[in-house]
Specification:
The protein is α+β, with helices and mostly antiparallel strands. Helix content is 32%, strand content 31%. The longest helix is centred in the first third of the chain and has 15 residues.
Length: 170
């Protein structure tokens, strides 16, 4: 059965937290295990969708309004309207079902229909995700060091990717 993508509902959150725990164990996403909780999962301020396979919620994609300055510059300048893909994951047991592609199709169609560029960042160790974005036409902007937890927190290597408005329009 092909994956179904629909808007996330409040009753999906407990299942998504359980899926996120599987993803954290398998992929170290999110980086910090304490983020495997409803508040982190639902933090983005834009729309969010879930993927279902065989009537089971197996993943999520959410958007955050805006994008960082580096991504905006790559998308065409500081005045470019953009959103950031965030909290995107699919259960390891459901990979290969088309759930990730279906979620990305939804995100890209949403952004393209609103003339929004897309941005995202992914940790360096998640090579499968980086390959997926490149296959779909997202442009890598290279790697950089990020400190998500303040100047004294640990440093991580991450990559930025963007998808310009023209590529997002299907």
């Amino acid at each position: 059965m092909a994956p179904l993508v629909r808007e996330r509902r409040p009753e999906d959150v407990p299942t998504l937290v359980a899926v996120l725990a599987e993803v954290h164990e398998h992929d170290r996403y999110p980086i910090v295990g304490t983020h495997v909780e409803p508040g982190w999962l639902t933090e983005p301020d834009g729309p969010a969708w879930v993927a279902e396979v065989d009537d089971e919620v197996v993943g999520q994609a959410a958007l955050t309004t805006g994008a960082d300055a580096v991504s905006r510059t790559a998308l065409g300048g500081p005045g470019v309207d953009a959103v950031t893909l965030s909290r995107f994951f699919v259960a390891p047991r459901s990979r290969g079902t088309g759930a990730a592609a279906a979620l990305l199709d939804t995100v890209e169609t949403y952004a393209g229909g609103r003339s929004l560029g897309l941005a995202l960042e992914v940790v360096a160790h998640n090579e499968a995700a980086r390959r997926l974005y490149e296959r779909r036409g997202w442009s890598p902007l290279g790697s950089y060091e990020v400190r998500w937890f303040g100047a004294d927190g640990p440093a991580y290597e991450a990559y930025r990717f963007v998808l310009p408005v023209r590529a997002a329009n299907f």
